[in-house]
Amino acid sequence: MDPVEDTLRRLREAFNSGRTRPAEFRAAQLKSLGHFLQDNKQLLQDALAQDGGLRVGEGRWATQLDAAFIRKEPLGLVLIIAPWNYPLNLMLVPLVGALSAGNCVVLKPSEISKSTEKVLAEVLPRYLDPSCFAVVLGGPQETGQLLEHKFDYIFFTGSPRVGKIVMAAAAKHLTPVTLELGGKNPCYVDDDCDPQIVANRVAFFRYFNTGQTCVAPDYVLCSPEMQERLLPALQSAITRFFGDDPQSSPNLGRIISQKQFQRLQGLLGCGRVAVGGQSDESDRYIAPTVLVDVRETEPVMQEEIFGPILPIVNVRGLDEAVDFINRREKPLALYAFSNSNQVVTQVLARTSSGAFCGNDGFMHMTLTSLPFGGVGASGMGRYHGKFSFDTFSHHRACLLRCAGMEKVNDLRYPPYTDMKVQLLSWSLSQSCSLL
Amino acid sequence: MSKISEVVKRARAAFKSGRTRPLQYRLPQLEALRRMIQEREADFVGALAADLHKNEWTAYYEEMVYVLEEIDYMIQKLPEWAADEPVEKTPRTQHDESYIHSEPLGVVLIMGTWNYPFNLTIQPMVGAIAAGNAVVLKPSELSENMASLLATVIPQYMDKDMYPVINGGVPETTELLKERFDHIFYTGSTGVGKIVMTAAAKHLTPVTLELGGKSPCYVDKDCDLDVACRRIAWGKFMNSGQTCVAPDYILCDPSIQNQIVEKLKKSLKEFYGDDAKKSRDYGRIISPRHFQRVMGLIEGQKVVHGGTGDAASRYIAPTILVDVDPQTQVMQEEIFGPVLPIVCVRSLDEAIQFIGQREKPLALYVFSNNDKVIKKMIAETSSGGVTANDVIVHITVHSLPFGGVGHSGMGSYHGKKSFETFSHRRSCLVRSLQNEDLNKARYPPSPAKMTRH
Fold it and tell me: Which InterPro entries does the annotation name (chain A) (predicted)?
């Protein structure tokens, strides 16, 4: 017997009973979720620390419940699959959207961020209505089995490779999906800018969460001259943030797993190390690193880095940078640094990406008024703020007519005599609607 | 490389040239499309007559006029919709620019269908062009006259490389679906919808699927039955029932079933005369296969009107069935023909339950003078869209999105929704390199004691 089957049936029955419809129910669930976060702050911080060395889980989200002539209705049973890099945020922020839209939700946390998984499985259910909510645990095999079932929406955050698997599984049931994936987020640095300011900003966002952020600047594109100025500035920023011995800094986390560590350690061999380059397997520590002289064909320029390594690729100007970017898959984020607004808007106009930030790293994520999502290989769909609510709702077009005024309809009925055709042409030319 | 691959490759090169980006390119293309429709109207009507026995009226007022309206609306609104949309800023980003920037996706594939072969192929295309994409059109091979006409006429008016038309059957479509697109827009059956989405998943291509289902039509005891039946008959039998949002079946109390039948018959006579086969305004079934399929649904049923057909002309008489058993085939698949089953239910709750046990339909209809009945029906069911006290018309309002939910589809279009469907709405934040000291607080090392904010 499939244990998941029972759980899903229970949730569907609860949904069909109409339990999640009233605004009061949803507001109560959201409030309870808030309490979960407040009551268990220490527990969550410890779990996040154990999983990845993160000190602060920051999240602020807004919800709106709308009523419209386009009726926004819950979809039914929603599956949210979260990754390991921001295991709490990337599970709960979509959850908020799904709950406020009135759905029943199944959560599938990542098995890699084990401590957070444990808290979500054991503590969170105490705060949410058990008839409308469930946590399912497991690895790739269990997730595959889970995906064989029918859901009314699947929200997935993770790699493009697994995104394809999720979408193919969803296709069997015609389940719509939002896929928040990734890519290599380019960071173009123009000659016309202050290298220290750029270095501060790029380094901050690159090494945040030890580089394990889907929207982190993945690589820098700049001229050889700018590179000369940037390297000491990057070293300076890294020292400022993490001290002379980053391994002992409380502000630098660790790599999530042995597997990821080994992958990243391998990337350290690409090009030439200009800053950092140290690693310690016993600690899953990788130093904040800058690589130069990298070739496009090397692994560090072929896969999303997802670690504290920043390669610099040389280009001879804006055109070459734009060509380089456009030869590759559309990234989740794209960054351009320049004192010249024209340069920044040119990069924007001539490329595509999920989102764009001029002269900073992923600050755009802090605006809930901006939708967050990818395009092309970096994903489909979006969320945050009102976009979350809309994502997890069906927008049902409703038209309520009255039984009267049937005379007006007369023109639309057969038989379509010549007289009627003429009358209709006339009425249309008067901008009356036929129907 | 196959011919299909070449065509797609050329479209991609055309898109990459960047010429669709300025509105000064897109607007003239839309105007050319409009001119094409106006100048070649007779050809389009001819194709629709040959494929589906449509006439000037039904061709124009049930298909073409909506496309013209969409083009006009799109041309008028495009400058506004294509502009950057500023968004609300946070305290820390007050001095920055923050907006949503709409961009084309790239190369869009639009797969049309055969029942409104002009409208359902071209109306989505309007949105795709407006959003700045290259568009590969694949008309349905079942409506072969329209498919052939589109392939001839579109290149005469529009940018040939940017908007190619590819024709063919299942093998060509399968090959086409192996190519990589930036969006696939498909109108058709649930079964093929799954195939399209599966193919799209290989390339992580987003899809809009306009599918179908059995759109229920609940007729309350408290309503003007004359008006209700007239409207239902119009929507059901238009295009010989081959409309994705046609009322598929009626749910009503047994006490009004006979009245409904009588009034439907009355309206049918008014619309199509005593013998619909002789009416200029009554359509034909698209193919022998579909003719057989629909005739098969009538077998074994209690026929109170019609029930006959002529294979040679693919004519099926307007048919009404009563006391229909929900287990029978006519209640298992989308009818897509001029056969109207009536299923009896004893209450609104039973009707709601009946609907809830089935896949979510593309449309749902409820006829009642009682607002509470309408509200309850809408609140306790789901469907792509709803019209209360009429049928079909919700899809003609261009400020309402047209699309399904569950098995009836995903995504939507029409009007602004079309523009959004075929665009990437890119979040943008543009800051300056000044005021770096304001950033001090965010950089490590973090203070010994964490301050709340």
Answer: Ald_DH/histidinol_DH, Ald_DH_C, Ald_DH_CS_CYS, Ald_DH_CS_GLU, Ald_DH_N, Aldehyde_DH_dom, Aldehyde_DH_NAD(P)
Cα end-to-end span (Å), chain A: 54
CATH number at residue A311: 3.40.309.10
* Local mean pLDDT, 10-residue blocks, chain A (435 residues): 87 93 93 90 83 39 33 96 94 96 97 94 94 95 96 98 98 98 98 97 96 97 98 97 95 94 97 97 96 96 97 97 97 98 97 97 92 98 95 92 70 83 65 40
d(CA A331, CA A354): 6
d(CA A300, CA A267): 6
B210 is catalytic: yes
pLDDT at residue A55, as a whole number: 36
Q: Which of A294, A306, A284 is nearest to A184 (CA)?
A: A306
Q: How many CB pairs under 8 A join A and B?
A: 253
Catalytic residue flag (residue B85): no
Q: Is the ipTM of this complex over 0.90?
A: yes
Helix axes A89-100, A23-39, angle to 10 degrees: 160
Q: Are residues A203 and A272 in the same domain?
A: yes
pTM of structure: 0.94
Q: Quick one: which of A327, A359, A363 has its CA closest to A341?
A: A359
A225 and A132 in a single domain? The answer is no
Q: Examine the domain organization and report whether A213 and A95 are in the same domain.
A: no
Considering the domain architecture, whether residues A87 and A162 belong to the same structural domain is answered as: yes
| CB–CB contact A413 B270 (8 Å) | yes
Residues A106 and A222 in one domain: no
| pLDDT tens over chain B, length 453 residues | 689 999 999 999 999 999 999 999 999 999 999 999 999 999 999 999 999 999 998 999 889 999 999 999 999 999 999 999 999 999 989 999 999 999 999 999 999 999 999 999 999 999 999 999 999 999 999 999 999 999 999 999 999 999 999 999 999 999 999 999 999 999 999 999 999 999 999 999 999 999 999 999 999 999 999 999 999 999 999 999 999 999 999 999 999 999 999 999 999 999 999 999 999 999 999 999 999 999 999 999 999 999 999 999 999 999 999 999 999 999 999 999 999 999 999 999 999 999 999 999 999 999 999 989 999 999 999 999 999 999 998 888 878 899 999 999 999 999 999 999 999 999 999 999 988 888 888 888 887 655 544
A88 lies in the same domain as A163: yes
How many structural domains comprise chain A? 2
Same domain for A104 and A157? yes
- Residue A98 belongs to domain with CATH number: 3.40.605.10
Task: Name which of A16, A75, A401 is nearest B387 (Cβ-Cβ).
Answer: A401
State which residue of chain B sits closest to A343, comparing Cα positions: B430
Which among A369, A426, A434 is the top mutation candidate for probing chain B, defined by the most B β-carbons within 10 Å of its own β-carbon? A369
Nearest Cα residue in chain B from A397: B385
Do A105 and A207 share a structural domain? no
Select from A341, A355, A413 the Cβ nearest to the Cβ of B428. Answer: A355
Note whether residue A18 is domain-resident.
no
User: Would you call B390 and A399 a contact, using CB atoms and an 8 Å cutoff?
Assistant: yes
